[in-house]
UniProtKB/TrEMBL annotation:
Pfam families: GST_C_2 (PF13410), GST_N_3 (PF13417)
UniProt cross-references to PANTHER family, sorted A to Z: GLUTATHIONE S-TRANSFERASE GSTA, GLUTATHIONE S-TRANSFERASE-RELATED
Stored InterPro entries: Glutathione-S-Trfase_C_sf, Glutathione_S-Trfase_N, Thioredoxin-like_sf
Entry superkingdom: Bacteria
Protein name: Glutathione S-transferase family protein
Amino acid sequence: MIELYKLHWSHYVEKVRWALDFKRLPWSGIDIVAFTKKEMQRFDCPQTVPLIHDTATGVAISDSSPIIRYLDETYPGRPLFPIDPAERDQVWQWMLRLDSTLGLYARRLGYTQVIMECPQTLAQLFMPDVCGGLFTRRGWRRLAAPVLGMMLTLRFHFHRNRQDGVYEALEALLRPIAKELQQHNYLVGGQFTAADITLASLLRPLRIVPYFSHHPELQSLFVWQERLFREHGRDATFPYEDAIRAQRQRRGTMRGLVRWMKSGSDEPGGQPPDALQVAKNDIHPVNRWSLVLGLPAYLKLRWFSGVHWMPNVAPIYMVNPCEQKL
Ligand SMILES: N[C@@H](CCC(=O)N[C@@H](CS)C(=O)NCC(=O)O)C(=O)O
C-alpha cells in the first residue's frame, strides 16, 4: 500500500495520483494541514507535498518526479518510462524541466487568479476543517481570505509576477510545445510516458488563467490535455476551477487582459536548456513579521497587478475542440 500525503488540489500531487492510478497500485490519501505539515514530520525527507510512504518497503520519498521514478523502478508493471535509455533520459529531463518551470509558474499564476477574482475560495482549500469548518462559512470566509492571500503572496511572490517575467517565460515555454503536440500525440517516443503526465497535470492551474487558457496559439495544448484527461479518467475540473467559473458567470467578467503583454509576437530563440539533476522550487519562508510586508504585496496584487477585467467568454478549446485539430 502506498500512502500519499497530499493537498488535494495541488497539481504536483495530481501528477503522482495519476501515475499511481495508471500503474494500478493500491494507495490511500492523507490530507495534510498546509501550515504545520505535522502528519509528515516523522519522515526524514524534504517536507513538500506530494510525499509517499511505501508501507511494503518502508521507503518515504518526496518530490513528484523522483516519486514516479521510484514507483516505476519498484513496480515495473505498466511502465511510465521507455525501455530505450536515450528516451528514458529525455522523459526524465522533460519532467525536471517542467517541474522547475511550468509547475512553478502555473502555480504562481493560478493562485494569482484566485486572489484577484475570488479569494474566499482560499479558505475552502486551506481551512476546510479548522474550528469545525468555521472559516468556510460566508462572513468568516471573507475574513480568512486576505490573511491567507497575504501568506501565499509572500511565500510564492505573486506580487512580483511582472518583474520576474512569469507570463513571458511561460508563453515562450509553451508555444513550441503546443506546436509539437499538433504533430505528435506524446512528448517522447510515440508512447504515453511520465513526461505526458507531468505536462498535463502541471498545466492544470492555467485553465483558470485567461491569458493562457484563451491564448490562440495554445489551444492545441489544452485540447491535447482534455483528450488525455478523457482517456485516463482524470477529473474534468478541480474545485478552484469550478469556483472561479461560477464567479465569472455571475459577474460576466474575468481578469484576463495582461496590459503589458502582446500575444502573437515572435518566438524567442534560445539555447537548449542545460541538463537538470533535480527540480527547482520557489517557496520562500514566511514568518509572522513578514506578514506586515504581506499587506502591501496583497493589495498590489488585488488592485494594481496590471491585469484588467474583460468580458467572460469560454476558451475556444471548450467551445469547439474539433477546430483545434489542425
Ligand atoms: N518539485 C516539487 C514541488 C512540490 C511543492 O512545491 N509542493 C507544494 C504544494 S504544490 C508544497 O509542498 N507546499 C508546501 C509549502 O508551501 O510549505 C514536486 O515536484 O513535488
